[in-house]
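All the exercises in this workshop are built on plain-text protein records. The record below serves as our worked example for the rest of this section.
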Amino acid sequence: MHKFHFTTIVSKSHLYKFTAMYTSLSMHCDRFKLYVLCADEIVYKILKTMRFEHVKLIKMREIENKRLLKAKKNRNFYAYCWTLKPCFLYHVMMNYHKARYFAHLDADLCFFDNPRRIFSENKNASLFLTHHRNSEDFLQFYDLTGIYNTGFVGCKNDDIAKKAVRQWKNKCIKYCPMKEDTIKKAFGDQRYVEDWPVNFPGVHIVKTAGANAAFWNISNYKVTLQNKKVFIDEHPLIFYHFSGLVMVDSTVYSICLNYSIDDENVVNYIYVPYLKMLKSCIDKVKRKFPNFNEGFLKREYLPDANFYVLKSKENDE
């Protein structure tokens, strides 16, 4: 039995970021299986060729039913991918159930430590949520994008978790808006988990600041490097959520769209290692698929700030 069954959804625009996420997860975690819902045929083709050891690929048609196909017609592609997050997690929980824990992982995460630290915080918990922990610049977003970030949602293999994820799934199929809906308190799939602490027993709000650190909270903390490990205050960094990072090419990146990351330690200890890993993953894919260029955005379309260019010396490290 695997200890962890993780799920993620990968579109062609996120394939390169997914390969970095998988690479980092494999470096820090064992006894896991990562179930990948391929949102595009080219994603399935490339990942099948890459033969990642701990990955099981699943095509959209394997999980799509009448309800999902109806939802697919009334929302755009990105809203549909958000809809699929709890649907696919529930599918894996019900059909690949030989695991102690499950978790959805967004494709733009990168692991710096073993995710078992998260689940070890409360072994009696059924559900694990990460608070946004917004910094001062983002406090107003609690009423827009919600209290919790669903880039990571963890579950124990029990009936409470299955009931909660099934409810989450049904709500997303019914309504999954791309734009913040403050009347219905909805934003994509994200705000539907806000009532879990009230409606379900055994909900654990993850305590460590090292889980789901991101641009919206990182300025709350002091980032240091201790014995080659990154720390967020006194907490080891478990994973960072690279939301807002844009790839121009394999060496040029906008590290955070529309927000400035000024802390040199954050850039040097978190972003630069990720960019090096991302470049390595891009190069590996391009050796087999040299014409695959999805996920890149031309520099002239981006704000002229927050750019980072990997130097040749960094590329060789």
